[in-house]
Amino acid sequence: MDTKFDSYFVVKAKENGVNVIGLTRGKDTRFHHSEKLDEGEVMVVQFTEHTSAVKIRGKATLMTPFGTMETEED
Questions:
Q1: Is residue 51 part of a domain?
Q2: Cα gap 33→40, rounded to integer Å
Q3: Residues 6 or more apart from 59 whose CB is under 8 A from it?
Q4: What is the per-residue pLDDT across 24-68, written as a single tens digit (0 to 9) for each?
Q5: Residue 72: inside a domain, yes or no?
Q6: What is the pTM of this model?
Q7: Rounded distance between C-alpha atoms, residue 40 and residue 36, angstroms
Q8: Is the residue at 16 inside a domain?
Q9: Distances (CA, A) of 11 to 16, 24, 25, 29
Q10: Residue 73 domain-assigned?
Q11: Cα 52 to Cα 25: distance, rounded to the nearest angstrom
């Protein structure tokens, strides 16, 4: 296993329709994957050689190696 990209975090949806969007690495940052979570659903996310950033839309709790945080309301 390549430990260079073994950073994980957890997203727990606090409402229906939370979007988890993966963004690519490289010269141009682009969307490459999107998931929609319903309230209570949990997704374990990993940074990889293709995923350099993740965008979260909607009310969710994020649990990372750096601590737990909540998305802010509009």
A1: yes
A2: 21
A3: 13, 14, 15, 18, 70, 71, 73
A4: 877 777 878 899 999 999 999 888 877 888 899 999 999 988 899
A5: no
A6: 0.81
A7: 12
A8: yes
A9: 13, 19, 21, 22
A10: no
A11: 5
Q: Which of 50, 73, 64 is nearest to 11 (CA)?
A: 64
Closest CA to 19 of 44, 48, 55, 51: 55
Is residue 26 classed as helix, strand or coil in its secondary structure? Answer: coil
User: Domain limits at 19?
Assistant: 3-67
Query: What burial class does residue 29 get, using C-beta atoms within 10 Å of its C-beta: 0-12 exposed, 13-18 middle, 19+ buried?
Result: exposed
Cβ atoms of residues 11 and 51 within 8 Å: no
How far is residue 11's CA from residue 58's CA, in Å, rounded to a whole number?
11
CB 13 within 8 A of CB 57: no
Structure tokens at 13: 């949806």
Q: Tokens standing for 32?
A: 């490459």
